[in-house]
Design goal:
Largest sheet: 3 strands, antiparallel
Order of helices and strands: EHEHE
Helix content: 25-40%
Radius of gyration: 17 Å
Strand content: 5-15%
Low-confidence stretches: none
């Protein structure tokens, strides 16, 4: 299995209208300070094979240093609560996951198709 990585470095928010998204089956979004397991893309690629109707898959959100301070502990507790009670409850009811700001994989059906604007003659 091969993965193609398109890395975008910018200070502006949002995707560029000239992003070549049409060439990819899916995109994953991460913040610059995220730590991602080496098997993340392979495991996230497995999910849509089993769940063909899945258009977006949310990665597990976690705090990398929960014992660093009271603030990181609060973020860790919030993630643990959301992952265990909120997301699990939604899954048990057959509802979709709530997407976090980092780690979601967006499949082709939900990727916008942007076309290079035509230049005036």
């Amino acid at each position: 299995m091969t993965h193609s990585i398109l890395e975008r470095r910018t200070t502006s928010a949002g995707l560029s209208p000239r992003s070549p998204l049409a060439f990819y089956d899916a995109i994953a979004l991460f913040d610059a300070d995220n730590l991602v397991h080496s098997e993340f893309l392979a495991r996230m690629n497995d999910y849509p094979k089993v769940h063909e109707d899945a258009e977006v898959v949310q990665g597990y959100l976690e705090t990398k240093n929960p014992d660093h301070s009271w603030l990181t502990r609060m973020y860790a507790l919030a993630y643990w609560y959301a992952n265990r009670f909120w997301q699990l409850a939604r899954a048990n009811w057959g509802l979709s996951a709530t997407l976090g700001g980092t780690g979601p994989i967006y499949g082709r059906p939900v990727l916008p198709v942007w076309v290079e604007p035509e230049k005036p003659h």
